[in-house]
Amino acid sequence: MPSPSRSVNVAIIGSGFAGLSLLIGLQKYPHINAHVYEAGTKFSELGAGAVLGPNSQRAMKLIDPRIHEGFERRAAFDPENADANGLYPWVSVTKGQEPDLDEKVVEYKHEIKGSTIHRAHFLDELVKLVEPHRAHFGKRLVEIHEKGDEDPITLHFKDGTTAMADIVVGADGIHSVTRKHILGDHPAASAFFTGAIINRATVPMEQAEAKLGDVKSKFGIRCGKDGLVFGFPMSERSLYYLGITTFNNAPVPRDAWVLPVDTARLKKTFANYGDYVRKQVELVPDDGTAMGWSIWEMPPAPTYYKGRVVVMGDAAHASTPFQGAGAGQAIEDALVLEQLLGKYLNNAQETIYRFSQVQTIVLALQSYDTVRRFRSQKVVTTSAETGRLISGNEPGVSMEAPELRMLLKGREDWIWDCDQQQQVKDALQIFEEAQIAAARRAAYDTA
């Protein structure tokens, strides 16, 4: 079997956190020619605040230290000092409603300083690292056509143009065309509405503090039956970001991702919550700048790849936001995928197994799938569980603080403390074991 003999063309569909992190990682390999295709007319990021936990930050450094440097320039860090154990506060959950009003349920801490960031600001830092000739706009994907195993894959865009690639990476979010190509008519091909709607708004920090008093920088959630509210400063404490979530809403149409915010209804929904929560809800502006986002979730897919087409980020594992871990999983995806492609598609890579480029690509995507699918799908599952717990929708669980505390304790540890370097090593080992197995099968087939 011949070894790879030419550069590899990688087409990344979508330019959010996932797609750009992968592109930046792949740019450093001279044997990979990566390009991103974006449906919009420019780089842009919907939504406002984001939490990128310790695991996300370690992955940034391993992809390209400049990503983390950009993050540090724009993030808002909690000013509190570390406790006696050297741990900084990150996220707290407090009862916003009786019983146990204002009682702290749990606080998650870590040795890395707690922080939040405006999504658009982080995207700006990613964009600075993208080589301009690699970005293509107005390219809304409508179809992926695979002619044969050894032929380039053809991408068809809504504007009538096409592009060719050896590998297609779908970072095209919850609307993913790429996922549908991979899964076909499988029930997991499309996302489902969870019944939750998050109403998002940003207000000037001075307005928030006039209403709420001194606002801490850490991510604080106040929870109650069928609702939760969180808020935190961002943009160097010039803005206060609000997220007000209601549960068990009526079904919404499949294309109703963004909904109008009925502030009067929100005030009524949270009328029996504590004073602090009611004041947070009163901050939501009536001027149309607030947006309601229906929360959708991806069912667990049986695979993240087919042939030389693969998904990552929300296209692979769109999650509810109740553990603040979705964006971090996208960056982990980017790390594992760029390391696999960077190492094994290099012509100079010494190996006794002479695999074709196509064979090598498929093994790399299989290894990525094995390492990333189960971890990322566990995040989706536990995030949904967390949402049910803190909104009083988990069967058999009360809204009393002691019971919630027991069930929520340690929920972030396995996400935050994942060893990213070991995750990459696992993927590389799986590739090499799969390569040996494939070579052995081929030897027997030709004997």
UniProtKB/TrEMBL annotation:
Gene3D superfamilies given in the database record: FAD/NAD(P)-binding domain (3.50.50.60)
Keyword Translocase: no
Lineage top rank: taxon: Eukaryota
SUPFAM superfamilies: FAD/NAD(P)-binding domain
Alphabetized GO MF terms: FAD binding; oxidoreductase activity
Protein biosynthesis recorded as keyword: no
Any single GO BP term: secondary metabolite biosynthetic process
Pfam short name (any one): FAD_binding_3
Keywords for this protein: FAD, Flavoprotein, Membrane, Oxidoreductase, Transmembrane, Transmembrane helix
InterPro entries in the record: FAD-bd, FAD/NAD-bd_sf, FAD_monoxygenase
Segments forming domain FAD-binding: 8-351
TM stretches of this protein: 7-26
Protein name: FAD-binding domain-containing protein
Source species of the chain: Penicillium arizonense
